[in-house]
Amino acid sequence: MSDNNLNNSGSSVHDHESLERSIDWKQGLAIASGVPLLILPSLGYFPLWVAAAAILIWGLSVVQGFFQNIAYAEMATTFPKASGLPGFAQHVFTSDNYQGKYDKGKLIGGFSAWSYWFAWNPVLAIFAILVGSYLQGLFPGLGEMFTEYQLSLLSGVVIFTALIVVNYFGLKDGAMLGYILAAVSIVPLVVMTAVPFATGSVELSNITSQWLPTDWSWDMHHILILFGLFAIAQWSACAWETAAIYGPEYKKPGKDVPKALFVCGAICLLTFVLVQSAVIGVLGVEGVLAEPLSPMIPVAKAAFGESGSVIAIVMLIAAMILIIQTAYLGSSRAMHSMAMEGNLPKVLSKVNNHGTPILAMIVIGLFNLVLISMGTPAAILAASAIGYTCANGISLFAYVKAKKDARFANLDRPFKAPVGWKNIAMLFGLFNIPLCLIGVVYLNSLEVGWTSTWIGFIVLSAFLPIWLYSQHERHSNAASISTAASK
Description:
Shape: globular
Number of strands: 0
CATH class: Mainly Alpha
Number of domains: 1
Strand content: under 5%
CATH topology: Amino acid/polyamine transporter I
CATH superfamily: Amino acid/polyamine transporter I
Distance between the termini: 28 Å
CATH architecture: Up-down Bundle
Largest sheet: none
Order of helices and strands: HHHHHHHHHHHHHHHHHHH
Helix content: over 70%
């Protein structure tokens, strides 16, 4: 973003493209607090492959998030006007004073942002499908009126439209909705999983006796599965980096970004380990596999009795709306950031009078209504995880480049990672690309076939023609301005 987006006092100078600095770290945390709920689609999936060791994978993945997000926190405070991962990578990889039409560095940064957009974007479709499924469980009569696809599509239309309306008036209203939904979803989710430990419903033998599948071996086949699981796990367990994407909208990004990030990370570490432990501890691995989409319902029954299933559905629907909002706001900011950097058509950089990128939100909503036609959350998540792995890998490489590039050497860094952190970032960048990328493609081929993988690569590849058009548009506009000025 241009430096002209801020006046000397640091307050926002409103125009039709700049985001508005209106939130503090607590509001950013409220919006990002939906991230712990990203575990829900995978609660029954991970035990299928690694039994109770799924608990360890979730814990290690959140720890991985701390290593990665320390780098991202430094980047967020170094480039306070950049929108999180998509903004950092675009800014760092763009060549200095490049005079040509097609900057390869700009293409790399733009592709990273596009990958991140595709990583967050399908969350809307995944949870719209789950909302439809849970609604059918709450109101069985709906199954007679609508097919599963129709109910999912209707859920998507209602939720996406409502969130556009709520967030139309700015990010502060989105944060208020986040507070409300967090109160009626995350807190009960923690209680719902903690009560079985207190009442003795959790059998530790369900965990210790089924730590790994009986046929598990440390051959290349299982190692690739493990890399694939880490790729899918980080899609959920590392995703609290979304708190940094609102960098241009924090009042004091140097202080607000690290606070929002690390508090959200601590919440994720607690909830991811606790929820998976409770589910396996109560149901056992076989019981979890018998309820692959909704294992929280029998856990709620163990915690609260038969009425618990109704409570669970209501709470989880609220939770799903919260994570849909988190993804909606994150992906719309990524799209806005790409348009501002000239990596998407300029029309997508427009914001309304309240600083909200409404057009980007509408485009994302329509795209996800199409994605719902894929039918299963697992297939959509498999495609989305490819984008998230690419985005994290390139963003970590961007951090390493920013630490070495003389252009950024004298920039103020209100938050600094420990000395030598660029080596940590490089290590995890290589862990993402190529290891996790290869692993998730391999795992997808075993579980959901090649369709989701091809969809993932097709969506990612679609960025090239869009980017070429955007560069042509940018240079045409520059030429028009130059011609007008000369007259």
